[in-house]
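call fold target=Peptidase M48 domain-containing protein
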Amino acid sequence: MAAVVAHELGHHAYRHIYLNMVNALLQLLLFLYLLSTVIFLPAVAEAVGVKRAEGEEGIKSALHVTFYIALELLGPLSVLTSLFSHACSRLFEYQADEFSVRSYSPSPLPERVPLLKRDKADESFRASEKEKREKREGKKGEGVEKATGEKQDEQEEGEKKQTSKEKMEESVSKLMKEVETRGEVEDSDKKGQALKRALSLLSASHLDNLTPHPLYVFFHYTHPPILNRLEAIDKNVKKLM
């Protein structure tokens, strides 16, 4: 999990979000400029047999035709811009993976997880028990019963604390065993292994194609194939050694 967070922080460190915003803005401006240019060309309407009058009224009369033709003519441009955006996105993913490998170094969990402090909870519990005890003492009014009630309350309080502590230690022990079983704890010298495991799990859950055709990747993939990313991670680890 932490390795994936480091990957996302890599996008922030390399300013990928701002670069994508600038790229999208430039593409939008280019598209609008070409669209406005094509719409007002008289030859566009005449090419499909639509005669328009001179002036603003003629432009408005043929606007529905020229607008549709302009969208069709600019279709290949959107394909080219999408190819550029996909290539940039794949490059950004490699850079974010490299940042995660370089900055994230997993360390094993401590042998003993300290229990949470329950001072405030104990104080409120003792206050409520004291109030109950005082009410009970007021009703009984006898010294022997008072001492017996206090002893029973202290015994019950001790049993509750012991039971709560045992349950907490048991839950922590189960959590530690589950974490170790799933292989979430990595040795500090195995850089990149946490990210590789996370990417492999995501790829398996999404049923990704492990060996897509390079042309299909070039036209459609915004993220590199999983095998290419794992290979790039290994190269980054070797560079750090």
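return ok
Residues 119-182 form one domain. Confidence is low (pLDDT under 50) at residues 109-119, 182-189.
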